[in-house]
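Dear Dr. H.,

I hope your travels went smoothly. While you were away I took the liberty of generating a structure for the chain from your last submission, since the lab meeting agenda had it listed for discussion. I wanted you to have the full record in hand beforehand rather than looking at slides cold. The sequence, exactly as received, is reproduced here:
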Amino acid sequence: MKRIGLLCITTPRDDMSYQKQVELACLGGADMIQLRDKNIDGGKLVKLSAQLQNICKAFGVYFTLNDSPDIAAKAGCDGVHVGQSDMPYSLARKIMPFAIIGVSALALNDVKTINDYGSGGSVLPDYIGVTVFSTPSKTDAKPLGLEGLKQASETTKIPLLAIGGVNAENAGEIINAGACGVAVIRAVCGAKNVKEEAKKLKEIILEAHEKKRK
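The corresponding predicted structure, in token form, is as follows:
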């Protein structure tokens, strides 16, 4: 799996479809797109996920679904993201053995626990989503802050994607603190100009990684 620097998560909008959000985010340089809508289920979610997967595939971008490994598998998604209160990671991995699977860490201790998923030779998650700043989308999480993010990065080799209040102003600091990439909702898919905001964030992320290498 290639490095995920920019994960763009969809958001419901009256003025823009999910299909358009995904297309514009891909054009802006997103590495992965995630569909997040807890109000769609069943056949409608399978159909929409398959459509978005096809858009992402055309751009060489990964597509994942939030919460539902069984639906993600039916739709042919590249992967799925599961939270602490969703289906257990071990079961998600059985349903999608070769997929990209990310898991949420609600606190620093969760990062250490997720690291233990690999005991006994089990396949580890492909990334851990960690909340760095407070956000309406993760009210149950304890924000780590930049110092906590640094500690988390020192306790695991699993790539960390930082979510929560991430924007163009702090994305560079977040990468510098140890995140592999960032996951954003409002900063890209909720923005007026989705493509341009994705492009701006991607450039900041790439520049931050380049500085770390020097």
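Two observations you may find useful: The two ends are 24 Å apart (CA to CA). The mean pLDDT is 94.

With kind regards,
E. W.
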